[in-house]
Structure formats: structure tokens, C-alpha cells
Specification:
The complex is a heterodimer of chains A (193) and B (250). In chain A, 51% of the residues lie in helices and 13% in strands. With 193 residues, chain A is α+β, with helices and mostly antiparallel strands.
Chain lengths: 193, 250
């Protein structure tokens, strides 16, 4: 007999993007609580053995290979690493923390024109237009996308480290923030998230 | 010889990948690949053939030979062959591009010139570390190209076939190409996107309602491509209403 964990496993196997818990619940006619429980069981089962893990990314759940298999998978797929340039990363960070933000405000923070970077980030679907500000000229407001969360291994924007703390922080606080950099598998599903 | 079922399945995959019609059986003879254009397309797409090892001159010659020898060729089939050839050329051109030096610079620590950006310095380091962490895990994806994993577009209940029908209706209304070039410079996709964005308003409209002027088939293709790119960028949204796709400003 198929358990709920098996059913969730089957759906996540065929999904090509993160699946929110409510979508799983709807598809399986389960409550979200039952889905959470099934996900916990499945995550533990996958964690124990095999090359696949369950991750929580961009507001949903998805199956991925475990980091231990990165080298062999990369040698098979031969992905071309496409890192963001310094200026793109700068604009992306400004948008991520100050969203919704206008182009002029991005320029103000950086002290240089950012039009090109904004366009490049939109091309990569890392930021998008999220509306217009009700001020003269109705400037476009930018915000980050699900693709941003996915590419930067985040489940939700609240996981961004606190920048104010970084600015005025003590050494201890900075160490805590720096620990975020080293913390492995933040987004992997754990029994007690 | 491959079983008939396998051949049929392959045909379906090429058919689906190229849109409407499978390309005609154009035979290609190169030192590293022998077979049809459709098979080469499929193998390259599935990463079963390294395109860097396949010279494309014989492939282009085979296509031109086909065109010259089949003056009454089916236009849709010829277009599918051209699409396959264009895919191969674009893919190889991209593979031949040098890796930007900027990426190498990224290994250096961040130095932020402006004090107002300084507060984001550590956050940027965190993001960079998370991106590296993310690159160590892989998901189901058919592509391993420059962007190995991109989230599929969320179009709710709108399927590719619905968009395809809208495109077909637009093409049906389009006029044949002029026999001679007009000398008028062709608009870039960016220019076309600006034009399409002006046409799309906050009310939901079908393609027929959006395109009032008379377009040639080429212009119709450009117009629809621009519309799809705007959907991809999130500037235009799409919905299904009584089996018909409608578009509006996001």
C-alpha cells in the first residue's frame, strides 16, 4: 500500500520546479498537516540513503542530488558556470534588500547608473517589475523573483541576512552573520525547520 | 535498423521540439556524424553528440542542396529544417564564444567603491556563498547549457498549445512577403517589444484585438516573439478565457 510519503515522492519526482505544500495537498486530497508529515518522513528516508535529497526552495519542495554527488553530476552535465559580475551582484543585493525599489533609488544607493545591470538581471529573470510607484512619472518598481530564490538556494526572502546588523554590528554579530556563509544545507528539509 | 516504433517516437520528439512540423529527411555526411538533420538536432539537444566535433559547413550545404533540389518543397517542412539548422548554428556559435574575463575577477574579494553600498558587502558575500552552495546540487532539467536550471514559466492554465493556436491565428491573418525587399531596415526584437508593450493594455485582449494593422508573415513572427519575451520578463500576463488566450499588462 502506498503511504503519503510515497505519493509525495512520486509527485516531486515528476515535478520540474518547486512544488508548494498546498499544491501537494490539493493533488493528493490531503491536509497540509498530512503533507508536512509526509514530507518529514520522505526527507528522513532520502537523507538516510541514496543520492537524492529533498530540498525546500523558492517556496516549495523539490528533489535534487546530494552535494556529495556534485562532482560526478557536473562532469556528466558539464554545466557552464555563469556567475554574476560584481556590478550585477551589487544591483541584485540592493534590489533584494530594498524591494520594491525604483531604478533611480538603485542609482542613488550605488552612485552610478544601473540601467544596464537592471536589464541584465531582468533578462536572467532574477528581478522583475512588481508595480509602479504613485509618484510623478510613476516610476517602475523592481523586486526579486522565484528564480532568484532558487538560484541563491533560498526558500523565502526572510532568509536574507540582516544588513543593518552587518553595518552596525559588533564582532560577535558579524561572526554570527559570517556563520551563515558556512552553514551547510540551510534549505534542506529537516524534521524541525 | 531501428524498430519502427523507435523511429516514430524520435519523429514525435523532433516534431514536438521544433513546434509544428518535423523537418524533411536531409542526409548529412560529416567525418564525425552521419545521419539526418533531424537526428543531429535531437542528439545535440539531448547532449548525445558534442557539437564542437561536428563541422557545420556540410550541414549547411546539405540544407541548401535540399532547397535547390526541391523547388516545390513543403514550406513548413523547409522552415522546420531551417529552424533545426539555426538552432545548431546558434548553439555552436555560443560554444565558441570566449568565457568573459569578468567571471574570473569574481574569485577576488569584493571591493565596494561607494560607502552607501558598503552595507551590502557582507550580504553579497553571503549570496555568493549560497549561490556556490546551490551549484553543488542538481535538479531534473533537460538543459545543461549556460543556465543549467531555469524555473519553468508559470502560466497557470495556459498551455504551450494554447499559445501555439494564437500564433497560428496571427499567421493566418498575416500577408505574404513582398517579392522584393523594401529597403526598410528590419526592426530589432527590442524595438518590437516596445511596440507590443504599447499595444498591450490593462484590459484582457486576444491577439486579434491587439494586432490591428496588417503584418507580413515575418512581422507576425517577430511580433509574437516580442510578446512571448514580454511574458517571460513578467511585463505581460496571459490567461485562458473560453479556450482563447488573452493578454494584458502585468
Amino acid at each position: 500500500m502506498n503511504t503519503s510519503a510515497d505519493l509525495v515522492h512520486a509527485l516531486l519526482f515528476v515535478a520540474d520546479s518547486p512544488v508548494p505544500a498546498e499544491n501537494l495537498a490539493r493533488a493528493l486530497s490531503l491536509t497540509e498537516g498530512q503533507v508536512d508529515q509526509a514530507i518529514e518522513i520522505l526527507a528522513e528516508r532520502l537523507e538516510r540513503e541514496g543520492p537524492i535529497q529533498l530540498v525546500r526552495l523558492a517556496g516549495g519542495f523539490q528533489l535534487s542530488t546530494k552535494p556529495a554527488y556534485a562532482e560526478v553530476v557536473a562532469s556528466f552535465l558539464k554545466p557552464q558556470r555563469q556567475r554574476l559580475s560584481r556590478s550585477l551582484m551589487e544591483v541584485l543585493a540592493v534590489v533584494a534588500y530594498r524591494q520594491p525599489i525604483t531604478g533611480a533609488e538603485i542609482d542613488e544607493v550605488r552612485g552610478v547608473q544601473s540601467d544596464h545591470s537592471v536589464r541584465a538581471l531582468m533578462e536572467r529573470r532574477l528581478i522583475r517589475e512588481v508595480g509602479r510607484r504613485s509618484t510623478p512619472g510613476r516610476p517602475i518598481l523592481y523586486g526579486t523573483t522565484e528564480q532568484f530564490l532558487h538560484q541563491f538556494n533560498m526558500d523565502r526572502l526572510e532568509q536574507l541576512p540582516e544588513v543593518v546588523a552587518a553595518l552596525d554590528s559588533t564582532d560577535g554579530e558579524r561572526d554570527n552573520l559570517a556563520a551563515l556563509v558556512r552553514q551547510p544545507d540551510r534549505s534542506r528539509v529537516s524534521p524541525n525547520p | 535498423m531501428a524498430p519502427r516504433q523507435t523511429l516514430l517516437e524520435r519523429s514525435d520528439r523532433v516534431h514536438g521540439a521544433l513546434g509544428v512540423v518535423a523537418p524533411p529527411p536531409i542526409h548529412i555526411e560529416t567525418p564525425t556524424f552521419q545521419g539526418s538533420l533531424a537526428t543531429l538536432f535531437l542528439f545535440v539537444k539531448d547532449h548525445r553528440v558534442d557539437l564542437m566535433d561536428v563541422p557545420l559547413t556540410p550541414v549547411c550545404e546539405a540544407y541548401f542542396t535540399y532547397l535547390l533540389a526541391n523547388a516545390d518543397a513543403n514550406l513548413d517542412e523547409a522552415a522546420a529544417a531551417l529552424a533545426a539548422l539555426a538552432y545548431l548554428l546558434e548553439r555552436k556559435a555560443f560554444m565558441l564564444l570566449p568565457v568573459p574575463e569578468e567571471d574570473i575577477e569574481l574569485e577576488e574579494p569584493f571591493v565596494l567603491p561607494d560607502p552607501s553600498v558598503q552595507e551590502f558587502g557582507l550580504a553579497m558575500e553571503v549570496l555568493r556563498a549560497w549561490q556556490e552552495e546551490r551549484e553543488g546540487i542538481f535538479f531534473r532539467s533537460s538543459e545543461a547549457g549556460p543556465n543549467p536550471y531555469e524555473l519553468p514559466y508559470r502560466l497557470k492554465d495556459v498551455k504551450a498549445s494554447d499559445l501555439s493556436l494564437a500564433f497560428a491565428r496571427l499567421l493566418h491573418r498575416a500577408e505574404d512577403e513582398l517579392d522584393r525587399p523594401t529597403g526598410k531596415a528590419r526592426r530589432s526584437l527590442t524595438e518590437m517589444m516596445k511596440e507590443v508593450l504599447i499595444a498591450v493594455c490593462h484590459e484582457w485582449r486576444t491577439v486579434e484585438e491587439l494586432v490591428r494593422e496588417r503584418l507580413t508573415r515575418t512581422e507576425a513572427v517577430y511580433w509574437f516573439l516580442a510578446l512571448l519575451e514580454l511574458v517571460r520578463l513578467g511585463q505581460v500576463v496571459v490567461q485562458l478565457h473560453q479556450d482563447e488566450v488573452r493578454f494584458a499588462r502585468a
